Amino acid sequence: MIKTKNVIKVMVLSVLLVLFSIVQSCGENDNHPKKTNEDIATLSADDENIESHHHADETEPHTHSHSSQSDTGKRIMNPEDIEELWIFPESKDQLGSGGMLQVYMDAESHPNASSGFAKYELGVGGALPEHKHNKTEEIAYFLSGSGIVISYENAKRIETVVKEGYVWYTAPGEWHSFKNTGDTPLKLVFATIPNAKHGLLNFFKKVSAEPGKQSTALSAEAFAKLASENDMILKPATLD
After folding, report:
1. Domain housing 19
2. pLDDT score of 21
3. Helix (H, G, I), strand (E, B), or coil: what is residue 122?
4. If both were cysteines, with which of 3, 13, 30, 35 could 39 make a disulfide (CB 3.0 to 4.6 Å apart)?
């Protein structure tokens, strides 16, 4: 009888141990939910952007995550990368007072960048026609030379002398221009925001020519149309 009771006790203990194991296993599953098909697909997509690399001094490989975002263009531009153009050249061999433009960043070279960036050297006696941009902001920093910036406040025309170290900001919708009043080129670097495909830099590229090449002759109507298409609205003479 005693032997039978001992056997029963052993069987009960065994059953309790089995039940405890099952309960513990269920608790672990609750803490770590099963991956859904969507989770598995996401992990698979992430794995495509991870490469395993081995180094001679390592016993285990490690991984680097690589962004799938498209390249925004070169991060460092040297003089050989710059697009150099003559603005309103007198001839294919004569630069003239229109000056020289050097494009570092625009919508073509850096399509995902927020801003375009260029350097401009306005020739002696040169000036740009008064204009505005409906969408474009400009920020310019004068490197050397001297000149006059033209702006308007309450419809009143204002001329401000600028030189090395001056910064010029132009908001969308503001009539503006500048001219070189010195005896050397008026040099500045400037940013255009946004970096639009049909923006100010594109306009300059359309009316310019590479050094040694003939520029395209444009009528006044064609010039104004091209300017308008690239967010450069010329100021009507009747507003003076």
Report:
1. 1-32
2. 54
3. strand
4. 35
